[in-house]
Amino acid sequence: MPFNTAAADCRSAIVGVLSSWSALVADERGVAPPRRAAPHLGTFLRRHLDWLARHPGAGDFAAEVAALERAAHRVTSPDPTRRLPVGPCVEPRCTGSLTALVTRDRHRPAEIRCDADPAHTWTGHEWLALGDRPTEAPRWLSPADIECLWDIPRGSVYRLASEQRWRRHRRAGRAYYAAADVQRTLVHRH
Predict the structure, then answer these.
(1) Pairwise CA distance, residues 100 & 21, whole Å
(2) Engineered SS bond to 178: which of 7, 92, 145, 167, CB 3.0-4.6 Å?
(3) CA nearest 25: which of 1, 10, 4, 46?
(4) Are residues 90 and 19 part of one domain?
(5) Judging by DSSP bridges, how do beta strands 121-123 and 111-114 pair with one another?
(6) Based on the domain organization, do 38 and 90 belong to the same domain?
């Protein structure tokens, strides 16, 4: 099983910060400190929270715990968006650069954004339509690309490819489909 170093580092930081504050409470209140384990430290600090809230370091305590919460959230719920550089903006006289934002979240379709002008934004399928020129060599899309761009299940991609006779190209044992064929079939989905 792979070891999640980010989670381990976060847990270590949590235990370290909670241990420090627990030691302060134990020393100043004359009580026994808890075991050095996150659940025991959290329970101990919660029991002494009213006292801690009146302590001169209460603001620091709150800020440190909030920072730990944000760090833990980043580890447990990482942003699933991949940012892929596309190149210069295609709009005339725009000096911006384009980035594709691709996610596995079915409620957030892929989009291409310009860093210079927020109006220069396209969904994945709109972007494909921009480049549909008959003189270009065919562009190839993986089933995962099609799934993300049109928000359709992977099984439907394979079914449509077969039914619509999309041109297929194999590379390294994987199937890729002609973007023009995919676009022609799915243009009315959005």
Answers:
(1) 44
(2) 167
(3) 46
(4) no
(5) antiparallel
(6) no
* Percentage of residues in the chain having pLDDT higher than 70: 87
Confidence of residue 3 (pLDDT cuts 50, 70, 90): confident
| 35 plus 19 within the same structural domain | yes
Q: How confident is the model at residue 104 (pLDDT cuts 50, 70, 90)?
A: low
DSSP for residue 132: -
Domain containing 100 equals 82-189
pLDDT for 123: 81
E strand segments, 104-160: 111-114, 121-123, 140-141
Q: How many residues does the chain have?
A: 190
Q: Are residues 104 and 10 in the same domain?
A: no
| Measured CA distances, 73 to 10, 30, 59, 64 (Å) | 10, 34, 21, 14
pLDDT over 60 (residue 26) = yes
Q: Are 168 and 153 in contact (CB under 8 A)?
A: no
Among residues 76, 102, 124, the one where a domain terminates is 76
Residues 133 and 50 in one domain: no
Q: Verify that 96 and 177 share a domain, yes or no.
A: yes
pLDDT at 133 over 60: no
- Are 181 and 113 in the same domain? yes
pLDDT attached to residue 13: 92
Residue 121: strand, helix, or coil: strand
Q: Are 138 and 180 in contact (CB under 8 A)?
A: yes
